[in-house]
């Protein structure tokens, strides 16, 4: 059987798994796709130059999110709202924002400080913010059950009680997370601490957040979300936004840069590498700094994962260009996706760094030791649980064959206990597995693919097709939390479960 033709089709009313024999012209691309193709022809009235300019990559400068820095302000304010934003120069795109513009602000806060933010929901439907990777009390975590209605305000108040790291925030309403993040409701969340400060890592203009999201636009610069049934396998786009800027460029100096990279795409896993530099250095993962820097040539980053890397441009001269690209990661899936857009295996250039200035001080070395990570041992665990990732009859993505039920408690965990979770993927598609309220370490995995990120603290781990990954963690926060697949279209369609720590 041709692997590409292993096709999975899903709809709310009727769902079916169709194996083999479906080619490009198959009916499974459906009437919907046909209609949208038609409507996409309409904007061809625009002059050729206009559309060329709009889609000409690497002509827009990277936007840098403004910051809400809790060193200078006491309380933040977010208001989820519809906004018109210039993603493409001279064109307005209807999006969702927290403060009227994209990218949304980066939150920066120190360990030990108090986070205070009032969140108002000005959307038509209920929603809630989740602080991804932050270990906070249940009522602050943004469980979908706590979604607030339109025009309501929720006061988030909690203390930062974890080490430095790159986290993020996004809304998490039941069944609508994919759409809300797609249209804009996410941002970066940086925790700092004294230990990290002593390392003198590149900072200020030399610390760049790169929030990567693939998106679809029509020629009027409107965002397009789901188009065909195949999009229920995961929405992939042909335009890669970095900090809400399509295929941007960034002028740089010939020195070291710290790049905090977040993949907040809907479904795309990237295998990131650079053209212009052979290797780069991984210094941190989801949960903060590694023990020691790791030199890599490329690195896989699944949805919701973060990598903290250093690139060294000291051998570059003015006029040189360094391109961050994805080499594609076709290993992630045998499932068909919407053929109008680049598949998971597609190679794409993402952002170009142009050396425009020389640095007077570019010889600083990276510290050999970054932090201490106490390695958790299997013998620390009092229990092993198995979580399976499967498609059940009706073509529904689930965990343990049970479609998500907000009222059902799926797992009960003893507060303070350490457990091993064995995540078994039975499907031929990789799923990023995320748990709220805890950080974990990866014990082992059955596939041979090397994930350098497995060496650090994690809150999200990619489980490859028909792979089992074992993770170990200590549950220190009591309450009801969730774990789920972070392919947004999968979590919205039932690949999620509740666990109670008591
Ligand atoms: Cu999934």
CATH fold-type name of the domain at 378-501: Immunoglobulin-like
Radius of gyration: 22 Å
* CATH H-level homologous superfamily name of the domain at 378-501: Cupredoxins -  blue copper proteins
Question: What is the beta-strand fraction?
Answer: 35-45%
What best-fitting shape do the alpha-carbon axes yield?
Answer: globular
- Secondary structure: helix percent: under 10%
The kinds of small molecule bound in this structure are:
copper (II) ion
Q: How would you describe the oligomerization state of the chains in this entry?
A: single chain
* Biggest pleated-sheet summary: 7 strands, mixed
In the CATH hierarchy, what is the architecture of the domain at 378-501 at level 2? Answer: Sandwich
Look at the helices and sheets and give the structural class: mainly beta
Output the number of helix runs.
6
CATH top level of the domain at 378-501 is: Mainly Beta
Mean pLDDT: 90
Strand order of the largest sheet: 14-13-12-16-21-18-19
Please report the distance between the alpha carbons of the first and last residues.
48 Å
User: In terms of per-residue confidence, which ranges show pLDDT below 50 for 5 or more consecutive residues?
Assistant: 1-51
């Amino acid at each position: 059987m041709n692997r590409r033709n292993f096709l999975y089709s899903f709809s709310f009313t009727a769902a079916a798994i169709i194996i083999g024999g479906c080619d490009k012209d198959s009916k499974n691309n459906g009437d919907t796709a046909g209609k949208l193709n038609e409507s996409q022809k309409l904007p061809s009235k625009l002059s050729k130059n206009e559309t060329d300019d709009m889609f000409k990559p690497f002509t827009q400068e990277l936007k840098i999110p403004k910051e809400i820095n809790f060193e200078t302000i006491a309380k933040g304010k977010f208001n989820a709202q519809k906004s018109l934003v210039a993603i493409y120069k001279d064109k307005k795109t209807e999006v969702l924002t927290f403060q009227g513009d994209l990218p949304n602000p980066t939150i920066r806060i120190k360990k030990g400080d108090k986070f205070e933010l009032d969140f108002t929901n000005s959307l038509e439907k209920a929603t809630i913010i989740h602080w991804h990777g932050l270990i906070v009390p249940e009522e602050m975590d943004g469980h979908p059950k706590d979604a607030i209605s339109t025009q309501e305000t929720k006061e988030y108040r909690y203390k930062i009680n974890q080490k430095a790291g790159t986290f993020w925030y996004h809304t998490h309403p039941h069944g609508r997370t994919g759409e809300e993040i797609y249209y804009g409701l996410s941002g970066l969340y940086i925790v700092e601490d004294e230990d990290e400060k002593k390392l003198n890592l590149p900072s200020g203009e030399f610390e760049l957040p790169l929030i990567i999201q693939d998106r679809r636009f029509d020629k009027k610069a409107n965002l397009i979300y789901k188009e065909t049934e195949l999009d229920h396998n995961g929405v992939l786009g042909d335009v890669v936004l970095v900090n809400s800027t399509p295929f941007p460029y960034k002028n740089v100096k010939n020195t070291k840069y710290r790049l905090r990279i977040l993949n907040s795409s809907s479904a795309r896993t990237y295998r990131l590498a650079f053209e212009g530099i052979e290797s780069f250095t991984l210094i941190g993962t989801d949960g903060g700094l590694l023990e020691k820097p790791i030199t890599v040539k490329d690195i896989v980053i699944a949805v919701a994962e973060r990598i903290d890397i250093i690139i060294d441009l000291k051998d570059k001269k003015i006029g040189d260009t360094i391109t961050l690209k994805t080499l594609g990661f076709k290993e992630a899936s045998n499932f068909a996706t919407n053929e109008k857009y680049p598949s998971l295996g597609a190679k794409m250039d993402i952002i170009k760094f142009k050396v425009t200035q020389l640095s007077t001080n570019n010889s600083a070395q990276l510290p050999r030791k970054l932090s201490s990570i106490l390695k958790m041992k299997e013998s620390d665990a009092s229990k092993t649980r198995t979580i399976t990732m499967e498609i059940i009859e009706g073509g529904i993505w689930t965990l343990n064959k049970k479609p998500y039920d907000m009222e059902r408690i799926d797992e009960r965990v003893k507060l303070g206990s350490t457990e091993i979770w064995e995540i078994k993927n039975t499907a031929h598609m990789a799923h990023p597995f995320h748990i709220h309220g805890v950080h974990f370490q990866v014990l082992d995995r059955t596939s041979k693919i090397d994930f350098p990120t497995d060496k650090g603290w994690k809150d999200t781990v990619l489980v490859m097709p028909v792979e089992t990954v074992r993770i170990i963690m200590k549950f220190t926060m009591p309450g009801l939390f969730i774990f789920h697949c972070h392919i947004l279209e999968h979590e919205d369609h039932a690949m999620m479960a509740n666990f109670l720590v008591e």
